[in-house]
Every structure is written in C-alpha cells, then in structure tokens.
Please model this.
Amino acid sequence: MKKTATTQVTVKSGDRRKPGATDWTKLAAMTDEQVRTAAARDPDALPLDATRLTAMRRVSRVKALRERLGLTQAQFAAAYRLPLSTLRDWEQQRSIPDAPARALLLAIERDPKRVRALLSESAA
Model:
C-alpha cells in the first residue's frame, strides 16, 4: 500500500460526510513502511483470513459499472434499454448476463456515452 494510492468514495445523495480524525500532516511525514506498520496494528483494519475472505460476496461487475457511471438502477435500465428486473437479477447475482448482454455491457463499459446515444429515442 502506498500513501499516494487513491480511493474512490461513493456518497449517496442526502448522505452527510462525517468529518475524519486523520492527522494528514503526521501521515505525510511517515514512510511507506511506517504506514504499513500502523495499518497492521489498527484493530479495525485487520487483514481477512482465508475463511472470512471466501465467505464474502463479490460485487457484481454490472453493479460496479452502473455505480461508476453514477446512475440508479432505473436510470441505467432506461438509458440502455434493459428490463429493470433483469438488471436487478444481474446485480443481485440471481442470474448472469448471456453472451449478447455481456457484449452490450462491454460496449457500455468502453464508451457509455456513445452506446447511450445509439440507443436513445432520437437514434431509433
């Protein structure tokens, strides 16, 4: 872990950010090794053992894509002409996208604006 790495934080509308207690001056003065040591000593940030790690569910790639685009499920489904129930099933891992759906999702991932424009009412 490097001090220069970035983390993306998603804040839902209406949520208020809680002020952090991080002493950024102290952190900036620490070496990478000191940061690793301090992180390892933090009881709230203990590494996961293999048992706990395998018990965790991965976030669906579809959900990660939708959240990266900053869209709700309803907005994403409408923009890319997907049934909302199908999108929910993919995100909750009750079903997986078939080959054509995976191709559409890959196209959305690579160029969401263009795919949205192609699927818009005016393009139909």
In short: DSSP finds eight helices and no strands in the chain. The two ends are 48 Å apart (CA to CA). Residues 24-55 form one domain.
